[in-house]
Amino acid sequence: MDAAGARFHAALENARRFFLGEADVQKALRKVARLLDGDGIAYAIAGAMALNAYGYQRVSVDIDLLLTSEGLAAFKARHLGRGYVEKFPNSRGMRDTEHGVNIDVLIAGEYPGDGKPKPVAFPDPAVASRTEGVALLPLEKLVELKLASGLSAPHRLKDLADVLELIRAANLSEDLANRLDPSVRPKYAELWRAARSAPDE
Questions:
Q1: CATH code of the domain containing 48
Q2: Based on CB atoms within 10 Å of each CB, which residue in 79, 94, 106, 117 is the most buried?
Q3: How far is residue 196's CA from residue 30's CA, in Å, rounded to a whole number?
């Protein structure tokens, strides 16, 4: 088997394990959630893993984790060198060495997309809702952040595509826009109309 064929079959196997809930990224998510809960550190799962929980099923290989800066410092103080390493010295991102999974940390109060000040910021993880024992970023916040990210950063257009696909997969309502920050409502409405105009496959 050539290199391309090997990558193809490895991707198929990873997707199979992911949709069975047995992929390394899911094991790593359950592990970090258990540790954070045990430490009493507020957190929320964001990104692709949250999209999956809300109905848009797609494979992911890393974890987006919302923490406060104090929560991140506390977690690192307790767990670096004990199954977790920094991606590089003094980075906020970490790697689960047991499962080989990257954890990208989002900090409450900072801004999505281009990182510049805007009406939408990463919220306090205390807003999280619990689903099957894991703290998730609420649906409205997840949508709001992805819209703000995609609108402000050309290299983050995938965030807008994620919202479009989530609208379709989860049958999100048009009036969800009323629960979003005014700065992102027009884009949500545009994506909602686009999702409704797409032909059924």
A1: 3.30.460
A2: 94
A3: 35
